[in-house]
Amino acid sequence: MAAGARGVPATIVMPQDAPGVKRAATEAYGASVIPCEPTSAAREAAAAAAVAATGGRFVHPSNDPAVMAGQGTLALELLEAVPALQALVVPVGGGGLVSGCTVAAKGTRPGLWVTAAEPALADDAARSKAAGALAPAAPTAAATIADGLRTTLGPNTFPIVRDLVDEVRCVSEVEIRAAMRLVYTRLKVVIEPSAAVGVAVALSPAFRAAADAAGIQHVGVVICGGNVDPDALAGFLRAE
Amino acid sequence: MAAGARGVPATIVMPQDAPGVKRAATEAYGASVIPCEPTSAAREAAAAAAVAATGGRFVHPSNDPAVMAGQGTLALELLEAVPALQALVVPVGGGGLVSGCTVAAKGTRPGLWVTAAEPALADDAARSKAAGALAPAAPTAAATIADGLRTTLGPNTFPIVRDLVDEVRCVSEVEIRAAMRLVYTRLKVVIEPSAAVGVAVALSPAFRAAADAAGIQHVGVVICGGNVDPDALAGFLRAE
User: Fold this and answer.
1) What's the DSSP call for residue A121?
2) Which of B21, B189, B234 sits opposite A231 (nearest CB)?
3) DSSP string over A201-214
4) Mean pLDDT score of chain A, rounded to an integer?
5) What are phi and psi of B22, to 5 degrees?
């Protein structure tokens, strides 16, 4: 969409199991989509081939500092809209969103508490933060319904998660589904499972107890990503 | 929800074919739901029986002046948020929403153009306005997917549609589905078919041509109603 607004051609490498609505929307906004096998190796190879073929500039979806900074503007807007915010919960996959939001939020509000939210089945960020070193992908990562969070932290996003994010909390698939169902039935907003992970953490007894203990009453949750195929939605909303 | 906030017991008569999520949400907000056959006669009988049994006050969903006024506050909020608005498109079934919005909008902005939006299969408001007298329900009314708009205008809502609403425009089932699909895939908002009828009118070539001819550039569309069972959603979003 940004490329289209500037009249710049865009080529997007997308796993072939991405939601059909995501691919359709990407193409409708004017991009060329190159499908690939849903592995990091296939994705990198397809991106390298596209760069070679088009002479374009490679833009990583999470580890590029400009992408991180751009995603961080979301936290600035949220803090502007809700100045009373004391905590922020942001899903973590590649870490672009959470690291950008953390730098932006703490730059303007140093005391703000930031929680990264991760599926327990893809808990590399939690393990990386606990170990103080980049951990490999969880062997169960492909099994989470939060497909946008299956990727791992990168060399630019990890240091921010390690040093600036206050904690990483994990939630189960059942909790992710319940959060998605709540947002669908009450807010009437379609969010993809990855976007529901932050809501699930915010609603979890452990997070609520910790927030209560810290006197935190105003919690912001970043809900980002609404690509759900209509045919898949009912399945996601089931309890398990 | 309003009754719960005031601690007043509420009994809601609901057609037995209403979406399951609608009934579940109503009960979760604290109301008792009485299901009935999906006909006006059955609904009125069930409501009368509930009033007799509980000693409660009957509240009509559209023809009650207080309900109409309450629904009109929606137009006030919209005009406050978007002062540049030149036209308003509001779905019409029983007419509570459109009459309330029209009175409120024209009271503060006399020159605002108001279009009532109706499914062609349930076009009693269009026929009533054309005839200058209350028309009976269309024989095809039960066939529209916009189940919230199958009802007809009442003695309090009709005069406002007749005298203050500028026009009634009808759309096809295909147009309603396309509007619902657009809102789902791009705005990521779940709206029920009845709520999509206003979007469908606003996007229709006939409305757009009329708006262009009148120099109208800022059109507000009231989107109201998000009760869609997840299992039914994909079917609604299909082209026909």
Assistant:
1) G
2) B234
3) HHHSHHHHHHHHHT
4) 95
5) -70, -50
State residue B195's pLDDT score.
Answer: 97
The span from the CA of B14 to the CA of B39, in Å, is 10
Question: Closest residue of A to B234, CA-based?
Answer: A230
Answer with the residue of higher pLDDT: B40 or A140.
A140
Q: Is B177 exposed, middle or buried (0-12, 13-18, 19+ CB in 10 A)?
A: buried
Task: Report CB contact under 8 Å: A184, B191.
Answer: no
Of B185, B230, B237, the CB nearest to A184: B230
Q: Which of A228, A220, A224, A218 is nearest to A197 (CA)?
A: A224
Could you read off the pLDDT of B162-185 as tens digits, one per residue?
A: 999 999 999 999 999 999 999 998
ipTM, interface predicted TM-score of the complex:
0.85
**Whole-angstrom Cα distance, residue B96 to residue B100?**
6
A130 contacts chain B (CB < 8 A): no
Residue range B54-104, pLDDT digits in tens: 999 999 999 999 999 999 999 999 999 999 999 999 999 999 999 999 999
